[in-house]
Amino acid sequence: MPLTDPVSSARAARPTPDRLPLGTLIAGCLAVCLAQIALAVPATLNGLFQEDLHPIGSQLTWISDAFLLPVTVLELTFGVLGDLFGRKPLLVGGSILVIGGEAVSAASSGVHLLWVGQVIAGLGAAALFPTSLAVIAAGTHSHRDRARGITVWAAALSTGGFVAPVVGGITGSYDSWRTAFVVVVLIGVASTVVSLLCARDSKAPEGRSLDLGGQLTIGIGLFALLYAVIQGPTDGWASTPVIIAFLVAAVFVVLFVIAERRARSPLLRLDLFANRAFAVASVVAVVGMFSFLGTAYATSIRLGPVQHQSPLRTSVAFLLLNGLTLVMAPLTSRLLERVSGRWILTGGLALMAGGDFLAATLPVDDRALTSLVLPLGLVGIGFALTVSSITATAVNTVPIHYAGMASASTSLLRDFGFTLGPAVIGAIALSRASSLFTSGLHGSALSPQVKAAATEVAAQGGPLAVNSVPSSTPPGGAAPLALQALGHGYSLGFAICGAAALVSCLLALIALRRVGAPQGC
To answer: Are 83 and 205 in contact (CB under 8 A)?
Structure first.
């Protein structure tokens, strides 16, 4: 769940003597809540997607990244569009895109149409995340009022992370996964009406321009990288499409660097990375957020498609992961005022690492929700501390006149980490599970008929498909082997998330030890 900081353009908006209109505040908060709910709802429904749509191989992973990809690639561009042409139209248009995307998702008869719906909804969220904050920041004219407005905005975003698993859990358990998307459509209609009637428009076109070269190169490069990572376990890491995708990603990342060096208004200021501390903080942002969303994805697959637990029970786990951010908001705010962001960041990452390592030790046949309270609670508390301190730490490493650009750059990198989480963890876990299942099946005492049937099902859908086969059918006898293989695969996923959080923790502790007050004051 991305958190975008006030962009520098919002600070450049021409002030007026009026206070922030209540209608604008409500519109911005409802818009970001909508975007966060749309982002988080599918995570509680992965088990139902597996049962109803029968995705094979990496198709389940693409449901999550179909939404996250446009958010990551286009979020900053929509921020510039709002500055140039007005933020109120983007609030309205973004909500309409979310409505359209969720309507398509609700009507999906197959996984491919669900991807389309999630891409459309992701485009809307990419507009809403930066615009909702910018319209609030632009309407405030003192540091105190802006801080209060941003705090309310962050609380609304956290509320979305809290509401989403409840919506997904209740509708998925008592009606249908399609109803969850219908609920999001209704929230989207409310957001559209409120933005249209109550929001005050604002813009700040001075010195702003679109970086089309940077946008195209990073978009193609990121998509190619994600395609290669997600499809690797299914198509084979040495397959021609995967190798070509990696090469395309490398070429376009280089082209992105060249484009950003030449751009008048770059999407990402590369000279900021000459500051060692900022570069380290950026790495921590990517790896730390990769760890969190990788954990969330591994949890959703473990409880849903692997253990076949209901969406309502799955939602409890996501309340631990996301809901604690809202609960801890007052404490986190006080800590950021009194304690160096580096220490909060280090402590948060350490808690995330501890929770992931505990989750990795849980046996796959342990279906008790109480077993998840400690590990996921630690990750949830750690994330609440980490996500609030990453930007503060990054901004404090650069001169004050670069604070806005540092915030925007950190947001881009943080969202990139979010997008990588499901892709990488899904790829590693499924690859490991497939290998273990194949070797376990060959060495088992099952009949040749069961082995042949299980091999055929696994060739099409992997261990997840075998794990979902009824015991009355021939491949069903291999389901316990698939369950154990998946358990080991996603335990490895949790361990990798823990290792990523631990590396980030040590990096922040060692490399950011000299970060103090903001520079250039």
So the answer is: yes
